[in-house]
Amino acid sequence: MNNPPDFNNIKQAAKRIERYIHRTPVYKSDNLNGLVNAEVFFKCENFQKAGAFKSRGAINAVFSLSKKEIEKGVCTHSSGNHAAALSRAAALRKTIAYIVMPENSSKVKIAAVKNYGGKISFCEPNLASRESTLKDIKQKTGATEIHPYNDYRIIAGQATAAKELFEDIDQLDIIIAPVGGGGLLSGTALATHYISSGTKVIAVEPAGADDAYRSFYQNKFIPSVNPQTIADGLLTSLGTLTFPIIKKHVDVILTVSEKSILEAMKLIWERMKIIIEPSSAVPFAAILENKSYFLSKRVGIIVSGGNVDLNKIPWINS
Amino acid sequence: MNNPPDFNNIKQAAKRIERYIHRTPVYKSDNLNGLVNAEVFFKCENFQKAGAFKSRGAINAVFSLSKKEIEKGVCTHSSGNHAAALSRAAALRKTIAYIVMPENSSKVKIAAVKNYGGKISFCEPNLASRESTLKDIKQKTGATEIHPYNDYRIIAGQATAAKELFEDIDQLDIIIAPVGGGGLLSGTALATHYISSGTKVIAVEPAGADDAYRSFYQNKFIPSVNPQTIADGLLTSLGTLTFPIIKKHVDVILTVSEKSILEAMKLIWERMKIIIEPSSAVPFAAILENKSYFLSKRVGIIVSGGNVDLNKIPWINS
To answer: Among the four A110, A118, B201, B268, which has the fewest Cβ within 10 Å?
Structure first.
């Protein structure tokens, strides 16, 4: 794919991945709706295979490869959910995923990759080491790189979450996705454009990692420098492929405080009895911070994932 | 109701409560199934209104009362989920729930009762104070007592969870419920008897609170004395109405260690991304402790509730 996914690409992705992923449920909570005076629909990708929406893109990308390509395996650098999702996708196509992870990655994330049979190469926790390690692997193995978000096949895969949400819930006034590298957000924005163009697309970012916010409003690519947030899935900078889609199809980007992210996360755990990771609390945090904006609206939220180290609950340990 | 619920009573209860409760989803986890080599179906009452199956019995009991009875309100003693569920049920019938709670009850539970408009009277944390406080309230107000489990209307209500599970999942070899006072268990056993008599009914109890286990196998009522378990919903003794039903319709009672309860609870949080309370982990703990017994079986579990104090995660704080 050399162009941003069109509607057909997204429909093909949905078809390609459906055997390998869950069609996740959409939940709502009368309790939380009462709290914010809006009708909020949570698309629960925390229940997705490997615990995050990342399985959609990873499966779509890996199953788009030719037999010849797949023989040599796939590779990526990721310390997070994409690493586990790609490992799982590779295992399903009976090939190897080579994963470059910083040596200080959490045990839980290392275990998840190993659990799906991913082959880990540790690197120093900096960009130079990560890139040189990945380059070495590509040269030695001939594996195809599957970038976590800067890849149209990944974007088309991530778009299927919003597609399903629109199939299940109609007349959404607003759809919200968190933004890190922008794979989920650009997919969500494209799906909304094709399926429900009257729905406003809002992205939310932690104030401590606001490269998308600044890039969007200053209309130029501004990478993250030393971002600080509990929402560890949103530390990455936008990509060269995701940013143009976001500029074109996202209506608003909001930022939220760490305090609101924690409050939203705890509220969702407590009232909805579901486990979501900090990054997934970011959209609801935006509603908490901007209640009058969302008043009486029908709002869809893509809950990105549920992978949390349960020994480090942020409101207890931090 | 002066006799144990027959199938018609359970069907009537289902009809009576359906407007006021959730038909909760049934979840399974490939990951956990792989771990225990069985097919386990979780009936997720943690997603129930007020966070527990207790809403079923409370609604059934309160909506069974006559207009005249309901005018004077309802009352109970409970420090747990029944207190919140009864408060909610009373509010729906626009009457008052008088709740006797020990003065050392957790803030979370006190807040839940207040949230639903229950009127709390605190007592000392012992049986004598609890009973005298409740007696005073009954005399002063004329409120109808709704016991947490020793009441056929409550039992008929709790039976509707298993009824729904059998409607959604067929050919279960085994159904498991935790046992405290026995309301959920006796309802589950009756529903199984009427709907799926080929399904074996297994009750599970913490080894540190094993009055049902001992009563069942010694064939006489042996109350709890100083029970100790993290599964705070299972501290109570069997009732005079629940024990005979359990004797007649439960096949096996197993006990599990605290270690297994914690392991099961953490596994379910981690792999299924759902929040369940310690008492709800007890059935899966029994599978973990008895894998060969459950090997290749289709097993239904009633997940009793999801009310946890999120500031006190047991594997972090204990």
So the answer is: A110
Task: Give the DSSP H/E element, type plus range, for residue B141.
Answer: helix B127-141
Percent of chain A topping pLDDT 90: 92
Which letter does DSSP use for residue B271 in this model? I
Q: Work out the end-to-end distance of chain A between its first and last CA atoms, rounded to an integer number of angstroms.
A: 43
- Domain architecture of chain A: domains with CATH: 7-52+152-317 (3.40.50.1100), 55-145 (3.40.50.1100)
Helix (H, G, I), strand (E, B) or coil at B191: helix
Q: Give the pLDDT score at B127.
A: 82
Please state, in angstroms and as integers, the Cα–Cα distance from residue A92 to each residue in A62, B37, B69, following that order: 9, 20, 62
Among B288, B285, B272, smallest CA distance to B43 is for: B272
Give the list of residues 6+ apart from residue A37 with CB closer than 8 angstroms, or none. A291, A295, A296
Helices (H), chain A: 7-17, 30-36, 54-64, 67-71, 81-92, 107-115, 127-141, 152-168, 183-195, 211-218, 242-249, 258-267, 278-289, 291-294, 314-317
Q: Which residue has tokens 């100790």?
A: B228
CB A86 within 8 A of CB A78: yes
Paired strand residues for A274:
B274
Contact: A311, B316; criterion CB under 8 Å: yes
Q: Which residues contact A223 (CB under 8 A, 6 or more apart)?
A: A211, A237, A238
Residue A308 corresponds to which tokens in the numbers above? 């949390």
pLDDT at A82: 96
Q: What percent of chain B has pLDDT over 70?
A: 99
Asked if A276 is an interface residue toward chain B (Cβ–Cβ < 8 A), one would say yes
Of residues B305, B16, B37, B318, the one with CA closest to residue B154: B16
CB B97 within 8 A of CB B118: yes
What is the side-by-side order of every strand in the sheet holding B26-27? B26-27, B39-44, B298-303, B174-178, B200-206, B252-256
Strand pairing category for A39-44 and A298-303? parallel
Assess: ipTM above 0.90.
Answer: yes
Amino acid at A116: Y
Tokens standing for residue A72: 């040599």
Question: Does residue A14 contact residue A165 with C-beta atoms inside 8 Å?
Answer: no
What is the residue-wise DSSP string for A82-116?
HHHHHHHHHHHTT--EEEEEETT--HHHHHHHHHT
Q: What is the secondary structure of A229-249 as a DSSP string?
A: -S-GGG-SPPPTTHHHHHHHH
Which residues of chain A are within 8 Å of residue B275 when distances are taken between CB atoms?
269, 273-275
Note whether A310 contacts B: Cβ–Cβ < 8 A. yes
The number of residues in chain B equals: 318
Distance CA B123, CA B138 (A): 15
pTM of the entire structure? Answer: 0.95
Residues of B in contact with A25 (CB under 8 A): 25
Residue A175 has pLDDT above 70, yes or no: yes
How many residues appear in chain A?
318
